[in-house]
Design the sequence.
């Protein structure tokens, strides 16, 4: 059967709980996380190589020039991107790689890795999303309103994802993501080599061996 | 999210262990089994409504005329078919329905229920398949040779299935089937109504509620 690693791209509205889902997934199952590169300054407690690879603009631009990024973009004066080498090496080593990334980046990944699966994490409802943002207590009302408006803009891209995973109960959400990965590996189109192999074998046996 | 029941069609070579997989699946998870109808005589220990609905030819033919079968076929002088009513009622009641059926029947089901998922259970290898048939000890060498030849003929249809599930370890195989069902329910195309709903809700919130 198919032993190739799978590239799993995870997006979702701010407040949908993607980060927690990814953390739990890695804690409970065997996944590798692709760490993004950025030129923004590290926040307190952020560690180079963990939350991000923190690079200078020169370093980042040299990665762009060297085609060492799968995708990159500039937001509010800072670069963000996905280093290519790590992803390719882990996939080759049959590891499943998780990439938590915003929508435009996710769609660019799919162009370059059509075999990747795109998952969009959703809250049970918009009301629930707003409640989570309020309960977090880290943003003021204006910022929350902006995030809700952004979620509405982003919602149009949900249809471009392969799967919609509801984050109602964390455990259930994590297991659904893991089920999707198990399931994708069993898809017929990912197992064509195995099918050819067993057909050849059966031919030998059917000739009366 | 999508609450619709899913129709899961399971096929596989004779000796691949489909029956055991289905039994375990029902014992561990919440599935309904669609029982086929047949005009063949019940074998020892077979119970009407359990292994099959055992019907007379007249009864079966009246079901054919009344369009009460999703698919039917005649083998070696006996009718076999899938009663429609049970499947439709269980799907409406949001239950997942399993149908263990041979290949031609499975492909006919897919024509009528394009939303159904087709799973093909495979042994790890042709060698292993033959070993299982021999170990079963219920068939002579000629019958085993026939089954292997039939498996070779059937192998060409594996590509028409949505998923290929290897039955190497029973528990793992059962959990893979269950993962496929969980995963399919999260597919974007099965959740279009939910996406529309959350988009509408987000629009209201983005207007500053």
Sequence:
């Amino acid at each position: 059967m198919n032993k190739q690693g799978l590239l799993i791209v995870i997006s979702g509205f701010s407040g949908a709980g993607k980060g927690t889902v990814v953390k739990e997934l890695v804690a409970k199952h065997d996944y590798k996380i692709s760490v993004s590169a950025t030129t923004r300054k590290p926040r307190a407690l952020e560690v180079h190589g963990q939350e991000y690879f923190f690079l200078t603009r020169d370093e980042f631009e040299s990665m762009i020039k060297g085609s060492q990024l799968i995708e990159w973009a500039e937001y509010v004066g800072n670069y963000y991107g996905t280093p290519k080498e790590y992803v390719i090496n882990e996939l080759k080593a049959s590891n499943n790689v998780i990439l938590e990334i915003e929508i435009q980046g996710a769609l660019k990944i799919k162009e370059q890795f059509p075999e990747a699966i795109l998952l969009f994490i959703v809250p049970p409802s918009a009301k629930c999303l707003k409640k989570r943002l309020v309960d977090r207590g880290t943003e003021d009302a204006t910022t929350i309103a902006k995030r809700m408006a952004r979620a509405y803009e982003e919602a149009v891209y949900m249809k471009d994802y392969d799967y919609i995973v509801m984050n109602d109960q964390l455990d259930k959400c994590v297991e659904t993501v893991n089920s999707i990965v198990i399931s994708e590996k069993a898809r017929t189109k990912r197992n064509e080599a195995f099918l050819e192999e067993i057909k050849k074998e059966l031919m030998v046996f059917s000739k009366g061996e």
